[in-house]
Amino acid sequence: MAKIKITQIKSVIDRSERQKKTIQALGLRKINHSVEVEANAAIIGMVRKVNHLVAVENI
Q: What CATH number is given for 3-58 in this structure?
């Protein structure tokens, strides 16, 4: 599987609880924090739900 780098670019303040938990589940903690994860169906689905809060790069 390919890896992707996910970076949080916007705050989760004033977002729904579901979006906050999704960001947490991706392993992101604060703005400009990045994680590298395997690009599986679950991760891609989570990224799509919060795509306005994160930036994604293929590795």
A: 3.30.1390.20
